Amino acid sequence: MVNKIGFGLLWLGVIAYAFLLAPPDAPNTFELIKNLSTGQWQGINPFIIALFNVMGIWPVIYSAILFIDGRGQKIPAWPFASASFAVGAFALLPYLALRNSNPQFTGKKNALIKALDSRITGIVLTIAAAILVGYGLLAGDWVDFVQQWQTSRFIHVMSLDFCLLSLLFPALLGDDMARRAWKNSSIWLISFIPLFGPLFYLCVRPPLPEVGVDKISPQQQATAN
């Protein structure tokens, strides 16, 4: 219950901060978002390009756990995971506040869960993230980014979102490891490394076992799929 209240208060806090305390919207925000989304990157700081695209990797990282975790929850995980592609942690925090501990996975893995559970998915995401981060660090203008962070709500909140997604990931780690009967104390420390800690976890975690498939009815199996 304490965790639920904490995540709920954090959600309200970040919303209040984003709309009341963050810098105001820059005049070119809509145009910037449109150009970033359509690949028209001429004249845009590569650091911002890299950050924007990395924010598209984060929802896939979380989906690799949420779609599995949501199998045993009273609330479905997919609306929150889907919304996170647009608003990141602002969509995930309500799920963290509403979910219950779920250290077991029962039933068969459907095609989506098999894909998200695959280490190949983690490896592909890691390669993509490494390319983006390398591009941003090598070609980006840090001074310009700091200036935009101080004057643009979009850049400011996107940066905050990145930090939140990095900090929140370990909250789902315990149950996901329990579902795999995997005990590894060092992975907890690694998971706090921004972006690459969670990606490392997806690359090395054992495959999710299908538990109790023979103990559930065909109707339940169909529902699970």
Question: What level of helicity do the residues show?
Answer: over 70%
Count the beta strands.
0
Q: Report the β-strand fraction as a percent range.
A: under 5%
User: In angstroms, what is the radius of gyration?
Assistant: 19 Å
Describe the structure.
By secondary structure, the chain is an all-alpha fold. Helix content is 70%, strand content 0%. It contains 13 helices and no strands. The longest helix has 24 residues, at 46-69. It is globular. Residues 213-225 have low confidence and may be disordered.
Distinctive features:
about 220 residues, mainly alpha
Summarize the structure.
It is built from 13 helices and no strands.
Topology:
Blueprint: H1 2-21, H2 29-38, H3 46-69, H4 78-87, H5 89-98, H6 111-117, H7 119-139, H8 142-151, H9 153-168, H10 173-179, H11 185-191, H12 196-204, H13 218-224
Helix pairs in contact: 1-5, 3-4, 3-6, 3-7, 3-9, 4-5, 7-12, 8-9, 11-12
